[in-house]
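User: Okay, second chain of the day. Same drill as before: sequence in, structure tokens out.
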Amino acid sequence: MKIAIVIEKADMRGGQNRVIAELSRRLAVRHDVHLFCFEAADLAPEVTVHLLPCPLRHRPIMQEICIPLASRLAVKPEQFDVILAQGGNCPVANSTLVHISQVELAQVKRQAFAQQPDMPAWERTIRNRWQQTALRNEIRVVRKCRGAVMAVSEQLRRTLISDYGLAEDEVSATPNGVDHDRFNLQVRERYRHRLRTELGLDDKSFVVLFMGARWLEKGLDRLLSGVAMLPDRDVHVLVVGDGDPTSVAHLIPEHMTDHVHFTGLQPPEPYFAAADCFVFPTRCEGFGLVMAEAAACGLPLIVTPAGVGAELVEPGVSGYLLPQATDDAQERLIAKQIAAHLASLCGNRDAARQMGLAAREKSLRFTWDRQAELVEQVLTARFAR
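Assistant: Same drill. Structure tokens below.
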């Protein structure tokens, strides 16, 4: 088949970018794959890349706004058997791989924008309006592509069925993968002592890891509120990813200020190695690569059921599941549960390590080869001549 894939950016750095880099590499083994995007790096040489024009391409929001029009103009439906969108980013698509529910994301974005008092009113208005436009685009494309709609997790598949009125057989789960050659138990031996020494942490310290950008969406505030409830223990929190530490400084009690370490964007493996557990109380997720990668490195998980969370966590065996919240009282309950789970893991390091090994086993079913096989099955059944 001749396949066009539309995405804003494709590379090996994570998120949708990496999913499409991994998927296109595997589809190109048997198909003629063309990638239409604004930026691309580290792709398989067999993939033909078509770079699209975009003003202010360095701003992600501009890429999101421009991709529907740019792809409409560049992709000629008569030239391809398959045109694969990512959610609603290509109006001429005949199939789509959905990475997150725009219904859920719009709710979280409204909350995030409301909690940024320094954001100008005009910018808040534009961002909210664009989020509603993205939602309409996704509804339009998903409903157009019935039968060739794919979701990156089973949880997201069920969400799409509910939100968009799809039948069970009109959307398939094609879960993302994990590079188990890169994320494994050996990272602990390779990096743990060195990074802990650099951070000034000894072997007795219990290290909690959070990794990601868009901190409110991913629940960093929930983690810090939970840590603030802990008794005076030798617990340290590593916050890895882009963000402004001053935006969450009010959540860190004075006695914990030197126990919360903001590292900025970093290679993930050393931080998985240095940590004793991974906490990711995300409010909205399609899959959550970072959860699966943390599990693959042998870390017990404290996560919400969003994305792949519920598939990785068997409560009390490979970690703990947190509920979602719709009001302040429920948010306080989540923080209390995080504190209780951290205290339990910190108080029983052997049990924490056993949970990490169980999480590792849960992660093994998620591979990039498997995702490519599932995507290819859907596309072949629908479009192969």
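The two ends are 8 Å apart (CA to CA).

User: Thanks, on to the next one.
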